[in-house]
Amino acid sequence: MDFLNAVVALSNYVVVPAMAYGSQLALGALGVTLIYGILRFSNFAHGDTMAFGTMAVVMVTWAFQAMGVSIAPLPTALLALPFGIAICAALVLGTDRLVYRFYRAQKAKPVILVIVSMGVMFVLNGLVRFIIGVDDQRFGDGARLILSARDFKKMTGLDEGLVIKTSQGLTVLTAVIVVAWLYWFLTHTRSGKSMRAYSDNEDLALLSGINPERVVMITWIIVAALATIAGTLYGLDKSFKPFTYFQLLLPIFAAAIVGGLGSPLGAIAGGFVIAFSEVTVTYAWKKVLVYLLPEGLEPTGLVQLLSTDYKFAVSFVILLIVLLFRPTGLFAGKSV
Amino acid sequence: MKKLLMASAATALIAGSASAESHANDVKLGVILGFTGPIESLTPSMAASAEMAMKEVSDSGKLLDGKTVTPVRADSTCVDAAAATSAAERLITSEGVKGIMGADCSGVTGAILASVAMPNGVVMISPSATSPALSDVEDAGMFFRTSPSDARQGQVLADLLIEKGLNSVAVTYTNNDYGKGLADSFSSAYTAAGGTVTGTAAHEDGKADYSAEVGALASAGGDALVVAGYVDQGGPGIIRASLDSGAFDTFVLPDGMIGAALEDTFGSDIDGSIGTVPGTESAGASKILEMATAAGFNGEGPYVGESYDAAALMLLAMQAAGSVESADYAGKIMGVANAPGEKIYPGELAKALEIIADGGEVDYVGATAVEFIGGGESAGSYKEILVEGGKLTTVAYR
C-alpha cells in the first residue's frame, strides 16, 4: 500500500506534469531544430513566434466564445488552433520575405542570421505586447479535469490522489499526433524528402532541381504550426503571458541542443530530458520517501535539491554539460 | 560654549513665553507628518483629523481649567530622516511643543524617536508607523502608536488557527518585505502557541504556473496552507494549483488575500478557508467619518481615525496627569486607552475630560477601537473571515 501511495504521489507531482511540460518543450524544440537543420541558423525569435501564434489563437477563441461556438468538454482553443496557425504562418512568411530572404540571398553567415533573429524577436516581443497586453490571459474553457484527486481516492482507496488535467491529457495526445505526422511527412512525402535533401547538402539538392524557396516556405509553415501548437498547449496548461514565452526560449534551446541540433528525434528526447530534470531536481521528495523508507529512516527535511525559484538554472547546467562534453548532443546532430 | 548659549537662550524664551499671560493657557502639540514625499496625498486628512481632536478639546474649555490646544505642523517627508529630525528639533526647542502626534512612516519615526523625542523627553504617538522593529525599540516609555504592528496579524492568525484546531500548516509567502515579514511573524507566533509549520516556501508573483511550488508544499504536508500573498498576483495561482493537485483544500488567508476576486475565481471550492483582515465593528469608525465630512475633509483615507485617536489620547492623558509635561502624562496614556472606565467615542472628548476631572476613569475606544498592549502599541482589531458557500463572510471580530 505504501509503495502504491509513493508511486501515485510521484506520478501526481512529477511524472504527469513533467510529461505535459516535456511535450510542450519537445514541440517547441522541434521548431528550433527544423530551422537550424534547414535554414541553418538558431532562431531566437522562436519563443516570441510561439507567443504570437498563441495570441492569435486566444483572440480567435474569444471570438468563438462571444459567438457561442463551443466544443465542450474540449477547450474552444482547439477549434481556434487552425486559424491561429494560419495567422502565425502569414506572419513568419512575411518576416521571411521582409528580412531573412535578403540575408539568404547574400549568403550571410549563420551568426549574422542569429543576430537578425534576435532583432525579429524584439519586434515580435513588442508586437504581441502591443496587441494583447502584458498581463495574464486565460482562455481555457471546457472540462478542467479528466481525473480529479477526490475521484481517484474513491476509486482506489489510496491516501494519495492522482490528478490529470484535460490540458495535460490533450498536450500529450496532440504531441504524439503531431510528431507522428511530422515523421511521416519528412520520410514519406516528396516535400519532406526534398527538405531533408536540402538540409543534408544544399548544393547537391539545388543541382537535383529542388526549388529552395519552396523548401524554405514549407519549413516556415511547419515551424509556425509547431510553434502555435506548442504555445497554445502551454497556455492552456498554465496561462498565457508574453513574458513567460520569452523565458521559455532557454529550456527550448536547451532541449534542442541536448537532443542534437537538426535532429527531430533528438529534439523530442531533449524536451523530455529537460522537463524531467527540472521537475525532479526541484521536487521535494519527502512525501515519497516517507512512504518508501522504513519507519525511523524517514527524512525530517523536505529533501528538495534546489528551490523552485532556480528552475531555469537546471536547463542552464544541462546545456553547459552537454556543450562541454558532447557538443553534438545525444542524437549526434550538428555541432554548435 | 555654543551649547550653553543656546540652552540659556532657550530657557529665556521658555521663561519669556511662560510669563506672557496669553500663552499660559495654551498647549502646543506637534503634528509631524510627511506633507511632502511619497504619502503626501494621505497626510492632509490625517493632520486635519488630529487637529479636529485638538479643536474639540479647546472648544470644550475643560482641559486643565480651560487650556486651549494649538497644533504646530512640521514636515517629516516620510523618507528623509535628517529632514524629519531637524523638523522635530525645531518643534521642541523653538515651538516648545508638549507632545508629538507623529511621525508617519516607520523609518523617520524611529529616527525622530531616537535622536529628538527621547533625549528631550517628549511623548510621541504615531498614527501610522507599522514596522515590527518599532516594538522592541528603546523608547523610555515615551513612544506609542495607534496602528498595530505588522507583526500583530501573524499573532492574530496564529491564535485563530490554534483555536480552530489546525495544528500543522505549510506556509507560502510572496517574495517581498510584506510577505516575508508576515510569514516570519506568523511562524514564530504559531510555533510558540504549539503549532507546527511543516514547510515554508516563497513564491514569485506573476508566474504562469505554481505547480512546482505547490508540489514542494504538498510534500511538507499539513492541515492547511497559509498563503501570505496578494489576491491579484500569485496567490490565486497557488490556490488553483493546490486544488488541482489535491494537495490542500483549506487555505489560511491574511489581509492581502481577502478580496472579491477570490469569490469570483474559486467560489465554493475553498469553503472552510479562514482569514483575517483589519477592521472594526466599533461605532467609532462611522462616527469619525461623519465628523470628517462635517469638517470638510476625506474621512475614508487610511490612518485618519488613528490620527484622531493619537491626538485625543495625548490630551486625555494630560488631563489625567493634571499636567501638560511629557514626563508627567506619559505614564497615564495606557490608563486612559484601556479598560476599566467609561467607553469614549469620537466627539465625546468633552465628556471624557469631565469624567477625568471628576476623578473617574475612561476607556478610550475612539475611531479605531484602540487597545494598547505591550510596549504601548495598538492591538489592532481584525475581522475573522470564513469562506462559506463561496462567499467571504465575517464571523467575528478579534
UniProtKB/TrEMBL annotation, chain A:
Q: Name one GO biological process term.
A: L-isoleucine import across plasma membrane
Give the keywords, sorted.
Amino-acid transport, Cell inner membrane, Cell membrane, Membrane, Transmembrane, Transmembrane helix, Transport
Task: Name the Pfam families on file.
Answer: BPD_transp_2 (PF02653)
Bilayer topology? Multi-pass membrane protein
Q: Can you quote a single GO CC term?
A: plasma membrane
Positions of transmembrane segments: 20-39, 51-72, 78-99, 111-132, 168-186, 215-236, 248-276, 312-332
Chief localisation class: membrane
| InterPro entries, A to Z | ABC_transp_permease, BCAA_transport_permease
What is its subcellular localisation? Cell membrane
Query: Could you state a single Gene Ontology molecular function term?
Result: L-leucine transmembrane transporter activity
PANTHER family to which the protein is assigned, alphabetical:
BRANCHED-CHAIN AMINO ACID TRANSPORT SYSTEM PERMEASE PROTEIN LIVH, HIGH-AFFINITY BRANCHED-CHAIN AMINO ACID TRANSPORT SYSTEM PERMEASE PROTEIN LIVH
Question: Which family does the UniProt entry place this protein in?
Answer: Belongs to the binding-protein-dependent transport system permease family. LivHM subfamily.
Q: What name does the UniProt record give this protein?
A: Branched-chain amino acid ABC transporter permease
UniProtKB/TrEMBL annotation, chain B:
Q: Give residue ranges for domain Leucine-binding protein.
A: 27-329
InterPro entries, sorted: BCAA_transport, Leu-bd, Peripla_BP_I
Signal peptide per UniProt? 1-20
Q: Which Gene3D superfamilies does this one have?
A: 3.40.50.2300
Q: What is this protein called?
A: Branched-chain amino acid ABC transporter substrate-binding protein
UniProt keywords, alphabetically: Amino-acid transport, Signal, Transport
Family recorded in the similarity comment? Belongs to the leucine-binding protein family.
Concerning SUPFAM superfamilies, the annotation shows: Periplasmic binding protein-like I (SSF53822)
Q: What is the lineage of its organism?
A: Bacteria, Pseudomonadati, Pseudomonadota, Alphaproteobacteria, Rhodobacterales
Give GO BP annotations, semicolon-separated: amino acid transport
